[in-house]
Design brief:
Number of strands: 79
Strand content: over 45%
Number of helices: 8
Oligomer: single chain
Structural class: mainly beta
Distance between the termini: 60 Å
Largest sheet: 11 strands, antiparallel
Strand order of the largest sheet: 9-10-11-12-13-15-18-17-16-19-20
């Protein structure tokens, strides 16, 4: 625990404290489950500038920020403020700083006249829950969250209780029992929370009823006041009673007044004015109009009574849960529906009565469906539930929304009749329609659907009708400062519009916080799974709004996600889940991200004019509109959500950047390790770099060979380089490295090439080139390719040099290795003129490669006339690798955009049956033998070839743009084929590598760093 420098001061946040706030968060990680995310001063400034806090209180020990407490309007309900985030630096806990911050927020709530203060925590927060309860919070008994409500502001602002708290200290004199579990006394379906206080002078207790969020009982030394009724659940339109009791505990009569009139759906009217000597009870009747079922997130419809005792007022409240005699819900289990085919829907009926009853359900006649029968009867026990299968045939796709007539017959033969809708979507390919259910507004297009939750405008989009989805657009916000008003506001309108290929849903919202601004959010759903959404803001008022901004928060459970960071496409692995908050917005260098996983490929793209980045667990897309004069309009950038419409990250990048699909990006790892140079000189010091793309500092041990480096979080590094001395290296060396830190153990391998000697060439009627290990031979008069490739004296290519022949399916057949346009057969290729020469080429890292260049010029072929291209076969001296690529020297005016180029080679050597093909799929490794029978294979990245005649393994590493490599063998040949698209001046290189060791595809792909 830290030693305090002086008394802790509570101050309001300003930007001058942003660096201190960042430091506080970085030193508080252990209190949040060991989170290692890094917070910077700039991130704090941005976060707080975009915040919807009314106030932000900071606890300061001298200049150190040691505590944080936000205060905002509660988005889930009316009538409450909210503490969105409370934190005390771990080394300062135990000094009652959390209490100081909470009480400051509570005082502000009282000052502003709000009746309640809410917060959320987690059930295991055993340190904080007693503090919260001591400060007046009650833990609500719910499955979906740990939600706490504090009614002390209402207590202190109630005139009738003010005299009591002249004698009582609400905090110090509390006698409430504090337990780390949900609170509440349950009675007749109600839950009551009770405060109690006592000191030498006086005592008091106040009860609050959970669903009304209001006072249901007050007891002081002078009186008891209470509002009661028999049941919390009330059948709609059925007359019921409530009562208000006053008990006089003092010696003098009480001047008691009570009155109340309709509030919303609850209809009642009563008044009383009397002197109470001992005890008096007022009884009044009420009914509840039909309406929506209330949510436990919100204050329920309530009976409200204004009470006066001796001239001092209070308000008593009881919430009710309006019900029909039964709750009816319809469900269709399939995603797509099919016309004129017998099917069924399920109708779930819950008996809300306290006795057994028979329910008769009558379906209306409807053109959309044909039912086997219109009436269903079912007996359901008290408070029980049954599901009835309703057979039908669908005649039209669309939203089936029948109003059912339900008659409940009780044991005494009394009948209760009511109407209730059910909502079922019958989706069909190409069918577009919208509709409204009990809890949502919907649009449908083919497989896809969008669901906007009425409670808070949370919007999910999916290709199925499952309840839980991995992606949601959260409630939009207008600012600045941003407000959460739309989470509680009913839209002024919701409309649907069908277009040729899409369907729109428009939701209009009138702002109260920024008076006169009308926000219209459009969701456009296409049949292929594309969603567009944008916002239009119009100033329909008379005031100028000097700074208007729009914020669209997004929630996404990310799996196997790709993000554009630091100019690279970074892949976050499937094993460790990626959370939005682990990104640094400063490192995002694109307007998209793309995820793969159990929900299929999902991509999100936004306008390049919008700003986007993480904020806690949400991803925020923001548009700045600036000043809006009366009558002015502004439109946000369009956000695109792809639900399976784009199957690969490169397709989605092309869409987001509005370009053609280009070369596949090399995908970096979230924790990358690489040598600064892959080609090194003997006895050179080598530099390696470890880099994390998660927003947390490296904190652990990096080991390369026998060299060990400690990297501490205090060094504040997301990237760390270290120099390692190396003795003389092999031509092809593998360096092992490891990192242990941030709760992770990672193993790395790096491939290093060490050239030695020279590359020589000779001519003896054909062209020979030798790097000391590999010898290549070519004769363009025989065939435009290489016909021989000997490695350490072993021939790997099968060929017919010097005479063309017929072999297996090929005639003529030359064998060897070549690259040529797809669709040109050997006859055509041999008609053209080719020549070969020795060339030197530098790679992208400045290394000089030497090898053969074979140039072919098409003059005879009708479709390819005028095209001239060169094949390259390049080597480094003393290194067992060949790099091969093609370059179009002259396209001859031909459009090569959709052409495919083929690199093929025939493996053989001395005896074909000596050759083995090793592949590994996801479950097991396989080996196949060439020359035995006809086998066609698709090679994975870990595949290689062996020969009984030598120790080397032969690896072929195709370029990143290539399709998977094919292998075909029969009793005469073994052919490898690599295909890649031809929209290039120069293709990315393909590599042939020879080594005795078993090497992985992940290691060998590092060669793709070499480009020419």
């Amino acid at each position: 625990m830290a030693q305090l420098n002086k008394v802790i001061q509570i101050e309001k946040y300003h930007e001058g404290l942003a660096a201190g706030v960042a430091k506080m968060w970085n030193l508080s990680r252990d209190g949040w489950g060991g989170d290692t995310r890094v917070m910077t001063e700039e991130q704090v400034k941005k976060k707080e500038a975009n915040s919807d806090n009314i106030e932000l209180y900071l606890a300061l020990d001298s200049e150190e920020v040691v505590g944080y407490c936000g205060l905002s309007e509660y988005k889930e309900d009316t009538g409450s403020l909210y503490i969105p985030l409370l934190n005390v630096r771990p080394d300062y806990q135990g000094h009652k700083i959390g209490k100081k911050l909470v009480l400051q927020a509570l005082d502000k709530t009282v000052e502003l006249g709000w009746p309640r203060l809410d917060l959320y925590t987690w059930a295991g927060n055993t340190k904080a829950v007693p503090l919260y309860k001591k400060c007046g919070f009650f833990w609500e008994d719910r499955d979906d969250s740990t939600h706490l409500m504090n009614f002390i502001p209402q207590v202190l602002n109630t005139p009738l209780l003010k005299p009591v708290f002249e004698s009582l200290d609400w905090y110090e004199d509390s006698t409430r029992l504090i337990e780390v579990k949900p609170d509440g006394v349950k009675e007749n379906g109600f839950t009551f929370y009770e405060y109690s206080w006592q000191n030498e002078e006086t005592s008091a207790r106040v009860q609050f009823e959970r669903t009304s969020r209001g006072i249901s009982l007050i007891e002081t030394d002078e009186f008891i006041l209470q509002i009661k009724m028999a049941d919390h659940e009330v059948i709609q339109e059925e007359e019921r009673e409530f009562e208000i009791t006053v008990v006089n505990k003092g010696g003098s009569p009480l001047n008691f007044k009570a009155n109340g009139t309709d509030t919303g759906r609850i209809k009642y009217d009563f008044a009383a004015d009397q002197m109470v000597e001992d005890e008096s009870t007022i009884t009044a009747s009420f009914t509840v109009e039909k309406g929506e079922e209330p949510s436990h997130w919100r204050t329920h419809p309530s009976i409200k009574a204004t009470i006066s005792v001796n001239g001092l007022e209070c308000e008593l409240k009881l919430g009710v849960f309006p019900i029909n005699p039964a709750k009816i819900e319809g469900n269709y289990s399939g995603n797509l529906s099919f016309l004129d085919k017998a099917t069924s829907i399920d109708v779930e009926i819950t008996n809300n009565l306290r006795e057994n009853a028979e329910f008769q359900i009558d379906f209306p006649v409807n053109e959309q469906v044909v039912l086997t029968k219109q009436t269903f009867t079912v007996e359901i026990p008290a408070r029980g539930r049954k599901t009835v299968s309703v057979p039908l045939t669908i005649k039209q796709h669309g939203f089936y929304n029948p109003e059912l007539t339900i008659t409940a017959t009780k044991n005494d033969e009394q009948k209760l009749t009511f109407q209730q809708d059910i909502s079922v979507a019958f989706k069909g390919l190409g069918e577009k329609f919208g509709g409204e259910s009990k809890d949502f507004w919907h649009i449908f297009n083919g497989l896809g659907q969008i669901n906007v939750r009425k409670r808070d405008l949370l919007t999910s989009a999916a290709r199925n009708n499952e309840k839980n989805q991995p992606f949601a657009f959260m409630t939009p916000k207008l600012g600045k400062p941003y407000s959460l008003e739309f989470t509680k506001k009913k839209p002024s309108s919701v409309t649907w519009e069908i277009n040729d290929s899409s369907i729109d849903m428009k939701i209009s919202l009138e702002s109260a916080e920024m008076e006169g601004l009308l926000l219209t959010q459009t969701y456009r759903l296409f049949g292929d799974g594309i969603v567009h959404t944008w916002a239009e803001v119009e100033n329909i008022g008379e005031s100028v709004h000097p700074e208007v901004a729009f914020s669209q928060p997004v929630y996404h459970e990310l799996e196997k996600v790709y993000f554009p960071l630091d100019g690279e496409v970074v892949h976050f692995t499937e094993n460790r889940i990626m959370e939005i908050g682990e990104l640094d917005s400063e490192r995002i260098t694109g307007n998209w991200y793309f995820s793969e996983g159990q929900y299929g490929p999902i991509g999100l793209a936004w306008s390049k004019d919008s700003s986007a980045g993480p904020e806690s667990w949400q991803f925020i897309i923001e548009d700045q509109f600036g000043k809006l004069e009366p009558g002015a309009k502004a439109v946000s950038g369009t956000i695109t959500l792809s639900l399976g419409a784009f199957q690969s990250v490169e397709e989605f990048i092309a869409y987001a950047e509005q370009v053609h699909v280009g070369k596949k990006p090399e995908k970096g790892s979230e924790l990358s390790f690489k040598a600064d140079q892959l080609v090194i000189q003997p006895d050179a010091d080598l530099e390696f770099t470890l880099k994390t793309y998660r927003n947390s500092y490296l904190d652990g041990t990096l080991k390369i060979g026998n060299e060990i480096h400690e990297i501490t979080a205090e060094m504040e590094k997301t990237s760390h380089s270290m120099t390692v001395p190396f003795a003389a290296l092999q031509p092809l060396s593998i360096v092992d490295a490891s990192y242990e830190g941030n709760g992770t153990e990672a193993r790395f391998k790096e491939l290093l090439l060490s050239p030695s000697g020279s590359v020589t060439s000779a001519t003896d009627g054909n062209l020979i080139i030798d790097n000391g290990i590999i010898t290549l031979k070519a004769d363009p008069n025989f065939y435009p390719g290489i016909y021989s490739m000997k490695v350490n004296g072993h021939e790997w290519l099968d060929h017919s040099y010097p005479e063309l022949t017929a072999k297996s399916w090929w005639n003529p057949w030359a064998g060897g290795m070549k690259t040529a346009p797809n669709g040109i057969n050997t006859f055509s290729l041999l008609k053209e003129t080719s020549h070969a020469e020795v060339v030197e080429k530098k790679d992208s890292e400045g290394n000089k490669w030497t090898g053969l260049a074979i140039t072919t010029e098409f003059k005879e072929h009708k479709q390819w006339n005028g095209v001239q291209y060169t094949q390259y076969y390049l080597m480094l001296p003393g290194v067992p690798i060949v790099a091969s690529f093609a370059e179009v020297k002259d396209a001859g005016g031909k459009n090569l955009a959709h052409e495919v180029w083929i690199t093929d080679l025939f493996i053989g050597g001395d005896t074909l049956t000596d050759v083995g093909i090793s592949v590994s799929d996801s479950k097991q490794a396989h080996a196949y033998h060439a020359g035995k029978e006809e086998i066609a294979l698709l090679l994975d990245e870990d595949s290689y070839f062996t020969s009984n005649s030598c120790d080397d393994k032969f690896y072929m590493i195709s370029n990143n743009d290539a399709y998977p490599t094919d292998a075909y063998t029969n009793k005469e040949v073994l052919q490898l084929v690599s295909r890649h698209k031809g929209e290039f001046e120069k293709s990315a290189p393909l590599f042939l590598l020879f080594d005795e060791r078993k090497l992985t595809g992940d290691l060998l792909k590092k060669l793709r760093r070499f480009q020419f």
